[in-house]
Design brief:
With 101 residues, this protein is an alpha+beta fold. The strands form two sheets. Strands 2-3-1-6 form a four-stranded antiparallel beta sheet, with helices on one face. The longest helix is centred in the middle third of the chain and has 11 residues. It starts with 12 loop residues before the first strand and ends in a 15-residue tail after the last strand.
């Protein structure tokens, strides 16, 4: 179910949205460690430091990313269900071309 030339079977990066503004990156990393080794959590913030309510999480392997999505998509965190999906944005570390229509 990759779409647009991206293969989720080789994707180890996950996009997380609907995150409570009070959540810090370390809390996300601690949670997602239950699914596998977390390389990096990039919590998106405004210039004033306010969270934007989304993050990009990079795991060691596609298997761990898949585990995280299966375990935590819809997980209630601070009374909000977080949403998770494979990340296909410009910040991917792969050299695949940008997705086009």
């Amino acid at each position: 179910m990759g779409g647009g030339g991206h293969d989720d079977a080789t994707n180890s990066t996950v996009y997380v949205s609907n995150i409570s503004y009070e959540i810090k990156w370390q809390q996300l990393k601690d949670l997602f460690r239950q699914a596998g080794n977390v390389r990096r959590v990039d919590l998106k913030v405004e210039p004033n430091g306010q969270s934007r309510g989304s993050a990009v999480v990079d795991f060691d392997s596609p298997h761990e990313a898949r585990n995280a999505i299966q375990m935590f998509n819809g997980f209630m965190m601070n009374n909000r269900p977080i949403r998770m999906a494979y990340f296909h944005g410009r910040q991917n570390t792969t050299s695949s071309p940008p997705q086009t229509g």
